[in-house]
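Bit of a strange request maybe. I'm writing a small parser for structure token strings and I need a real example to test against, not something I typed by hand. Could someone generate the tokens for this chain?
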Amino acid sequence: MSCIFLTDDHVYKVKKPVNLGYLDYTSLESRQYFCQREVELNRRLCPEAYLGVIAITQEKNRISMGGQGEVIEYAVKMRHLPEEAMMDVLLAKNQVLPQMIMRVADKVAEFHRGAEIISGFGDIKTITTNTDENFSQTEKYIGQTISQEQYEGIQEYTNSFIKNNALLISKRIADGRIRDCHGDLHAAHICFTNGICIYDCIEFNDRFRYCDVAAEVAFLAMDLDRYRRADLSRVFVDAYVDKSRDRELLELLNFYKCYFAYVRGKVESFKLDDPLISKEEKAKTLTVARRYFELAESYIR
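Reply from user aminoacidic:
Good idea to test on real output. This should exercise your parser:
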């Protein structure tokens, strides 16, 4: 969805002019708008990193950041966060401690407590729209990144769970559990610097960000499972439940773990169609996507 340009001190994120169905960046105006939304929304959990939106301009043959001439693109300008402090990097080195995970849980629970309660989302119709979209958008990858058996098994489990838990889903709405969340809470978006910075939330589609807090908790718990750290996954969930007093979310945990593992498999599969991604990177992507779908399947057993 984006191209990232790194300097020693800053990061410039430029959105690609693509329409992926669930997002549309095809016009310059839409890219400017979503750059602004990205900055506004991410300042909730990582204010020090998001510096603003900068115009990319062209004057004769010179292209500049914030220069004179015609505006040809926009970029989100960020501080360059230290890679060595990213949770995914630390997980790979076995350097994430339970105390660190508990701090993340506290931050997420506090964020959810103050987040806006959203009406008109989180119901069966919205959830079904999201899950149906998953299946329709991954059908073309059957035989590549997901098998027919996995596809049908996860689809059957998903539809049955939604049908059988209609009362619980309605209760979550009535209890104010649908909030304006982060929407993309996984290890690569958490940096242990200046406290804890949680960045890169979903700005391009409110439907994915307006969700049950249980879904947000399940996303990171699923990602910790992916790193084969089920112990840290349990620490995160337990610490969040202790802080929020929301034990009911445990009934939804595996459903949303399955959903988000499937989402990540889908997103990785999309990369196979991106002409800007090399053949070598696509070979790695194929493996990653398959592992995500295998993880999604593991939650329905």
